[in-house]
Design goal:
- Chains A, B: It comes from Tumebacillus permanentifrigoris.
- Chains A, B: Keywords: Aminotransferase, Pyridoxal phosphate, Transferase.
- Chains A, B: One of its GO terms (biological process) is glycine biosynthetic process, by transamination of glyoxylate.
- Chains A, B: Its cofactor is pyridoxal 5'-phosphate.
- The structure is a homodimer.
- Chain A is of the alpha/beta class.
- Chain A folds into 2 domains: 241 residues, Type I PLP-dependent aspartate aminotransferase-like (Major domain) (Aspartate Aminotransferase, domain 2), CATH 3.40.640; 128 residues, Aspartate Aminotransferase, domain 1 (Alpha-Beta Complex).
- Chain A is 45% helix and 15% strand.
- Chain A has 14 helices and 14 strands.
- The first copy, chain A, has a 7-stranded mixed β-sheet with strand order 2-10-9-8-5-3-4, sandwiched between helices.
- In chain A, helix 11 packs antiparallel against helix 14 and helix 12 crosses helix 13.
- Chain A is globular, with a radius of gyration of 21 Å.
- The interface between A and B is large, with 43 and 43 residues.
């Protein structure tokens, strides 16, 4: 029953707040009219708070991958040497995009579920001074690892190389101050912590990046950031804007400004703590170490039960969607998303349902134990938040 | 944060499904046009399934109390003797309405939290053969008692008296077959099990009731059921219809027909079983015995903690609304609603949050114990549902 009401605990798309749904249901307006221009220019301006930057943030109609391609297409040309930090599916995507643009791709990597050490980046940069751009993934959605972008940036900023960060499943949920950390291009998508449906990507660009972009001769048209910069200066977009999504974006920015980034980050850390406490109390293997785990998604392994059965019971009994593993992790792990329009009560909900799904899948867990651990983590993290 | 997203676990208004919200957001149409007439006539026809009746069900713009007044105003006139069965706030409301229409009101009652015994009704009818109408409350929302309407009807149907049933917080959630049980007038509201916002009431009327209504000379206008009957025959309403709510009603009927009454009733019994199992496992006093408890609302007492503090923590921490006590029960009990657009996962959610609120209120409970009992009740009742 109530099939429409899927409870999205996947790492995107995430639930859309009702205010945002209503905003998107506004009657259509023309994307070249004054009303839309004002709304669009304000949204682009307000996105700087979310990116913690003084520089332009461009709004493109496209998925997160479109934003990643824009970063590559504007900074890399055939024969350039680039360094890709990869420890999962989305790190590998940077490699694929860079290769499709003819780059000479070097990589530093770590096994899926582990994190790149900034020292690996330092060594690669020392060994290969010809590296022009470094690509890194903040939250590796496929594993639930949150990379030390601050540490990586400290190494890259000792050189002339640019640092491009995929923050698709982290920006607006985890601390990532673009200017303070010296990040050159930051990319995110609409359907993760930004609480919108898929369809927009956002690209923040530093002056250092513009020096490269302006000289870049690689063929590009739709993703040419020069067009976006020129048109944003005129309060518009080079090509047709996704009008309804921009209606929703304005409402999302209201929500984000009203809650404030520090509270948003604390809420995500609390959801992460609750989820991890519950999984530990149930005796299930967490796929990532605490110190490198993301506040937006938690990957969980199996100690013998069928993870796909767990996912099926969650969907069938409770209409809750959690994600499976990607690539070689399919059937090995499942992933609970906790970002965007989600709060601690949502964690209690998914974890209490998870316990039932685990029992139905034959896992050896005690009902209630995970929820209790999450409840305790909630009370403890609330203490910290209050006293801090 | 996310203040708009109140999780309604009060016994009405209840959450509105998104399909219904969208249906209600349709552009306005005229209530005398052909499009609305067709929609309205179909909705009235389809409501017969929900009432389990072959007779007309009238759709009035008004709250549940408006429907109760319609039942009184059309069957009672000054000096008539009526019998009101009352064991709570809504039973008492029938007494007040009947008195305002000049009736000689006899009552059978039970302490709040207990149920009227059909034998009490039989005795009153034997002692007072002049009783013209018997008024009974199916679910007494103020206490969470579900009355034995079948048993009361069996007694009333031995006489010429009419039986009027307040099914505001039960119809569409608990078994109440109007025709099979011989009920003369059944009243419900839109904002309980019928998953709509407040603003409509629905009145089912038997031929036996019509014999009385046609002869009734009490002054009445807006609630004169004769007008509603005449206009329903012409596929319309005597006065302006609540157009958006009727848009929503059509969608609600889709949902109810799609799930089917037997499944809906089983779902509510399952939510009731989960809630009661959790409260027992936490060692809190249930305000009603299992045998007379409602599948739509559960009243819970205190063993020392401040019930108003519990409600405040639920609202502040999780934006969950549960109801307090009414009348002399204010501060003594709190009430969890579980009807309409609600499923077992919603019970796991509210119960896990309740445990935290209880701890914060200084109650002596063990975190996780209530949730575990609810999880076990879920698994057990699911077995029953599957094997039945």
């Amino acid at each position: 029953m109530f099939q429409e009401q899927t409870i999205l605990r996947i790492p995107g798309p995430t639930p859309v707040p009702p205010q945002v749904e209503r905003a998107m249901a506004r009657p259509m307006i023309g994307h070249r009219g004054g009303e839309f221009s004002a709304l669009f220019a304000q949204a682009a301006q307000r996105l700087k708070y979310v990116f913690q930057t003084e520089h332009d943030v461009y709004i493109l109609a496209g998925s997160g991958t479109g934003g990643l391609e824009a970063a590559v297409a504007n900074t890399v040309q055939t024969g350039d040497t680039v360094l890709v930090c990869t420890a999962g599916n989305f790190g590998d995507r940077f490699t694929k995009i860079c290769k499709s643009y003819g780059a000479n791709v070097l990589t530093v990597d770590a096994p899926w579920g582990e994190a790149i050490d900034p020292l690996q980046v330092a060594i690669a940069l020392a060994d290969h001074p010809e590296i022009k751009v470094v690509f890194a993934t903040h939250c590796e959605t496929s594993t639930g690892v949150l990379h030390d972008i601050q540490g990586i940036a400290a190494q890259v900023n000792k050189t002339d190389a640019l640092l491009v960060v995929d923050a698709v499943s982290s920006l607006g949920a985890a601390e990532l101050p673009m200017d303070a950390w010296g990040l050159d291009i930051v990319v995110t998508g609409s359907q993760k912590a930004l609480m919108l449906p898929p369809g927009l990507c956002f690209v923040g660009v530093s002056p250092k990046a513009w020096n490269i972009i302006e000289k870049n001769e690689a063929p590009r048209f739709y993703f040419d950031l020069r067009s976006y910069r020129k048109q944003l200066a005129a309060n518009t977009t080079p090509y047709t804007a996704s009008v309804s999504l921009v209606f929703g974006l304005a409402e999302v920015l209201n929500l984000i400004e009203s809650e404030g980034l520090p509270s948003i980050f604390a809420r995500h850390l609390q959801m992460q703590a609750m989820t991890r406490a519950a999984i530990k109390a149930l005796g299930l293997p967490l796929f990532t170490e605490d110190s490198i785990s993301s506040p937006t998604v938690t990957s969980i392994g199996s100690n013998g039960f069928d993870v796909e059965a767990v996912r099926k019971f969650l969907k069938k009994d409770f209409n809750i969607a959690v994600a499976g593993g990607q690539g070689h992790l399919k059937g090995e792990i499942f992933r609970i998303g906790h970002m965007g329009f989600a709060t601690p009560i949502d964690m209690l909900q998914v974890l209490s349902a998870l316990e039932i799904a685990l029992i139905k899948s034959g896992a050896n867990v005690q009902l209630g134990n995970g929820v209790r651990a999450a409840q305790i983590a909630y009370l403890q993290t609330q203490e910290v938040t209050t006293h801090a």
